[in-house]
Amino acid sequence: MQRVLNILALANALCCLMIMVASTTDTANAQDETRNPTAKIDIKSVSLEQSKGEFLRAYCFDCHDSASQEGQLDLENISFDLGSIESAERWQKVLDAINSGEMPPKESKQPQAQSKADFLEALSGKLVIARQTLSDSGGVITMRRLNRREYANTIRTLLGIDIELNELPSDADPGSFDTSGASLYISSDQIEKYLALGRQALSTLIASHTNRKQIDLHHECETDTNRSIKKRRDQLLKRHNLAEAWRKSDGRPPTDFGYIDASRVQFEEGQYKKSFPAYDAYLNFPPTSSGIAFTVSQSGAMVHYTSLPPTAPAGEYLVRIRAGRLPNVSPQRSYIEYGSVAPNAQTGELVVRGHHKITGTYETPEIIEFPLTFHHANERKLGLRERQPNSRNAARATFNAARKQGKDLPPPAIWVDWVEIVGPINRDQTKQHFDRLFPADKDHKESTNARAILKQFAERAFRSKQPSENYLDRLEQLFEEEKKSGLNFKRALVTPMAVILASPSFLYLQEPNESPNRRSLTDQELAVRLSYLLWSGPPDQRLQDLARKGGLTNPTILKEETERLLADPRSMEFVRSFTHQWLQMERLEFFQFNFLLYPQFDESMKMAAREEVFQAFNHLLRNDGSLGKLLRSDHIVINEILADYYGFPGVRGSEFRPVMVPPSSPRGGLLGMAAILAMGSDGEKASPVERGAWVLRKVLHNPPPPAPANVPQLSRLSDKILSAREAQAAHMEEPQCAQCHRKIDPIGFGLHNFDATGQWRDKEKVSLIANKKVRREKTHVIDPSGTLPNGDKFADFFELRDQIAKQEQNFARGFSEALIQYGLGRPYGFSDRTLADKILAEASTQRNRISAFIHALVQSKAFQQK
Fold this sequence. Notes:
Elements: H1 2-22, H2 25-35, H3 53-59, H4 61-64, H5 85-99, H6 113-134, E1 144-145, H7 148-159, H8 188-210, E2 215-220, H9 221-248, H10 262-283, E3 292-293, E4 296-297, E5 300-301, E6 304-307, E7 315-325, E8 335-340, E9 351-357, E10 366-374, E11 381-386, H11 392-404, E12 414-423, H12 427-437, H13 446-461, H14 469-484, H15 489-501, H16 504-507, E13 508-509, H17 523-534, H18 541-549, H19 555-567, H20 572-582, H21 603-622, E14 635-638, H22 640-646, E15 657-660, H23 674-679, H24 688-698, H25 724-732, H26 735-750, E16 763-770, E17 773-781, E18 786-787, E19 793-794, H27 797-805, H28 808-824, H29 833-844, H30 850-858, H31 861-864
C-alpha cells in the first residue's frame, strides 16, 4: 500500500509542477483571451465613421434594428469601435453579407452602386487596420495535453502496443477539434488512470516478449455450433413431451411434470412452436454437417465465436476462413462480417471491424485471410456473422417474415467450413521495441543500468527533452522499492516507467514561454508540432536528427520534411481525424437507421460510406488534387460494397480505388457521397433543413444563424400527408422562421432526390403514422429546383452541384479556417483572417492543391511561433 502511495505522490507532485508551469505568462494570456474575447487591446481605438450609420439606416434597419434583430443582429445599437475581437468579428460578418450580395435581400430596397462601394471601402479599410493590431494580442496557442488519438499513437511508437482508451477523458467539445487546447487539460484524478494505462502497456510488452508461445488454432465450425443447437433442440423436445404428458394426464398438477403452473406450460409451448422447427431445420440442412450456415433466429443473428486460449500473447494475428456462398444468394447477402463482442451486447450484435465478399461457393469454397489485433484487455474472441444490421429487432423481423412465408427459418446465405488463427505475426516488431526499452546490460550493475534505461526512456517519451537529475533520482528510488518487493529487474522498471508515461512532460505538448511576447519555436519544438499535425504522433528519427542539427527552420528543408510526412502512411491519421471533425461526421453516429426501410445501410455499409470520404480526401492529397474536386469530380474512390450500393459493376475487393463516373451520375464529390447525405437525415427520412444547413456551414462558408428558441410546432398539419417542400412552405409562414429557411431550404430541396441513406430517387413516399402503424401514404414527385443565397438558380441536383462548384473559393476559405484551428490547437479568431488570406493566396497559385494549403500553414509564422 505504501508503495502505491509513493507512486501516486510522485505523479501528483509532477502534475502540480505542470500546473505551476501552465501558470506562466503565455498560458495566462491564452486563458485571458478565451475567457474574455472582447477585452480591448491597448492601442489607439479603431473606429468606423459615425456617418456610415446612414447606410445601415437606409438599407438594413427593416430587418436589423433593435426591434427586429433578425438573425440576432442589432445594427441600430452596434458599436462603431472595432477595437475588440467581438466587435471586429461582427463588422466582418456585415462586410461579408453586403459584399456577397446576400444583403440587403433581393426583394428589399437596394443601394446605389457608388454608395455601396463607398461603404464597403471604408469598412474594409478599418477592418484591415483592426486585424493588424488585434493580431498582436490574439491567437495565443494554449499548452495542451495529448488527445486520445495522439496518446495511443505515441504509446504505439514507444512500445509497439495498442491499448484500450475507454478510461481516458473525452477530447473535443461539440463542434470543435480534438486538438483544441482549451478542452485538453488534466485533472489530478486522471493521473491514476494514466499510470494504470502505462503499467498495462509496459506489462503487455514484457509479457508478449516473454511469452514465446506460438498460436496455431484450427477450429471446425460445426463442432460447437451443432452441439449447442442440438442441445437446445433436444431440451425443447423434452419439455414439449412433458407438456404433452401433462395434457393427457387425469388432472395431475403441472408441478408433477416439472412446471411451476399452467401458464409456464403455455409459455414453453410457445417457445417450442417458434424455435424447435428452426433448430431442427438447421440441423437437417446438409451444409451444416461440415460447417456453419449463417442464418438468424428469433433471439438474434447467428454469430460464430472462435476464442484464443487465455495464455495467448496480445498482438497481431492472421485469421484464415474457408467459406462459400450457398445457392441463390443475392449480392447483398454475399458478405461476411468479422469483429469483437461489445460489453453487454445482445444476441447477434457485433462490433464490426471489417467485412469480406464471399466469391467462392459451397461446392468450391475460397480461403480468405486478414490480420486482426487482439488487445491485452479485450476478451480474445473473434466473431463472424453474415452481414446485416446490428439489431436483434432486425434479426427477429427477418425470422418472422420467413415464418409467414411458411419457412422454418430464413434460408442461410454463407457457409464457413473452418477458422484458423495464427500468430502473433508481429514478433519481430515486439522484439525491436523490447530490445530498445531494455538494452543489454554491459556492466552488470543493475542500479547504474536502471538509471541509464530510465534516462533514455524519459528522453524518448519527453520528445528529446532532458529529464532533470532530481527527477531521475526519484524514479530510481521507485525502482529500488520495487526491487525490494521481490520483482525482477525488468518488472521493477515498470512502475517508474509508468510514472514517466503519466508525467506532464509526456502528456503535454510543452512549448514553454515565460515572456508575454511571442517567440519562435526551437527546431525540436517545430519537429514535434509538425509530426503531431500530420501523424498525430511523435517525430521519427530523421526528423529529430534534422531538428538537433538546427536545419528544420530552413524553409526548403521544412517543406521537404512536410512532403515526406504527408507521403508516409501515418499521415492517414491526419486525413481521418481532420476530415471527420472538419465535416462534422460524428452526426453519422447520432441515430440508428431504420433497418426495415434501409436494410442495405447496415454497419458494414456505414463503415464503408464513412471511409469513402476519407479516401477521397486522401486520394486528392496524394495525387496533387485540387480541393475543388471535393465539390465535383469525374471519379469516386470506392470499394466493392459501395460499388454495389451505387450501382457500378466490375469493382472487386474491399480495397478502395478511384473509379470513373459518367456525367449522368449524381456521384462525384461530397454532395453525392452516402455518408454526407445520411448525416442529413434522422435515420427515417431525409431532412432538407439539415442538409441545407450543412452545405451552408461546410461548403459555402455561409453558416445560418442558430434557430430561435420559440420555433412553433405546426400541430395543424399533423393529420396531413405533405411533401417535404409543402411542409417547409408551411413552416415558412411563421415570421421567425422565414428568414433563415429562405437561405437553407432551397439547397436541401436540391439534394432531396437522395433518400435518408443517399440512394437516388425521383419520388418520395410520405406516410401518416399513428400508434406505430401506417394509416395513410402518399407519393410525391420531387421538385429539386431552387435558388442559392447569392441568387444563382438551379433546376435540379446536377445544376445545384455545378453552381456550388463555382464557389470553390468560399469552400477553400472554410477549409483554411478549419485547418488553422486544427493545426494551431485553438479556435479560429478574427485576428487569423490575415493568415487565412495568405494561405488562400498561396494555394490559389497552385490550383488549390490540398497539399498547398498544408504547406502554407506550416510555413507561416503562426505555426512556427509560440
